Amino acid sequence: MVPSTVTVSQDPAGRWFVSLLCDDVIEPAPASTAVVGVDAGLDSLFTLSTGEKIPNPRHERRDRAALARAQRNLARKARGSANRAKARLAVARVHARIADRRRDHLHKLTTRLVRENQTLVIEDLAVRNMVRLHSLARAISDAGWRQFRTMLGYKADWYGRDLVVVDRWFPSTRLCSACGALAEHLPLTVRSWTCRCGQAHDRDVNAARNILAEGLSVIACGGGVRPQRESSSRTGRSSVKQEPPGATQGIPVP
């Protein structure tokens, strides 16, 4: 295969890259009947409707001390000096190492999910608004939720998979996946809860199952994946949920 374009570039960390633009065709993956709902979080990076929890590697936290040292060293150097240029390069290399590890982890995870499942359902998260909460901004940025969605989107297109994005106002956490009842209030500190029907829930697993049920109802009923905010934000229920409250019944529990 002969590349049509070759680009040589250097990143802020001083590393050189050669990019080759080639015309290639990716074969769709074999059809599958597997479906999965994915709930994003911070304690667990992602929770699947199967009950599996993907640990959060916290890449930035692992290198936080090294990054702080490099930044302090940079702050002590005189502007315009050769030593400042070297210190700036050291800071960039720590940032590059963090970004590389995060990207590698997300690539492996998204490839696995796309290969194993025919339909993938995720939430439409407003990451730009969420990082305004200063107490969680660093952790949310380190999680790479936006990057995860981007990778999942183009890989689903490559391999012939279906990616459904449910509305961000859908109350996936507070909705009981067994009976469909809506809990009044669940603070972030509550990691497990019991519905009035008697069903005990893990907060994240329950949310992932509700996300999956919502996505499947959208596919079955032909509704949109992003309802009008007026109808969903006031009632706490998504307007695309065209099934009755018990529609989440029947989702397999591992």
Write the layout of secondary structure elements.
Blueprint: E1 5-10, E2 16-21, E3 35-40, E4 44-48, E5 53-55, H1 59-62, H2 64-75, H3 82-116, E6 119-123, H4 127-130, H5 134-143, H6 145-159, E7 162-166, E8 192-194, E9 200-202, H7 203-221, H8 229-235
Parallel strand pairs: 3-6, 6-7
Antiparallel strand pairs: 1-2, 3-4, 4-5, 8-9
Helix pairs in contact: 2-3, 3-6
Question: Would you mind describing this structure in some detail?
Answer:
The chain contains 8 helices and 9 strands. Helix 2 (64-75) runs antiparallel to helix 3 and helix 3 packs across helix 6 (145-159). It is an alpha/beta fold. The chain is 42% helix and 17% strand. The strands form 3 sheets. A 5-stranded mixed β-sheet has the order 5-4-3-6-7. Strands 1-2 form a two-stranded antiparallel ribbon. Strand 4 (44-48) and strand 5 (53-55) form a beta hairpin. The N and C termini lie far apart (46 Å).
- Major sheet characteristics: 5 strands, mixed
Tally of individual helices: 8
Number of strands: 9
Report mean pLDDT, rounded to a whole number.
Answer: 85
Give unreliable regions as ranges.
Answer: 224-254
- Widest beta sheet: strand line-up: 5-4-3-6-7
Q: Into which percentage range does the β-strand content fall?
A: 15-25%
**Nearest-angstrom radius of gyration?**
22 Å
| Span between termini | 46 Å
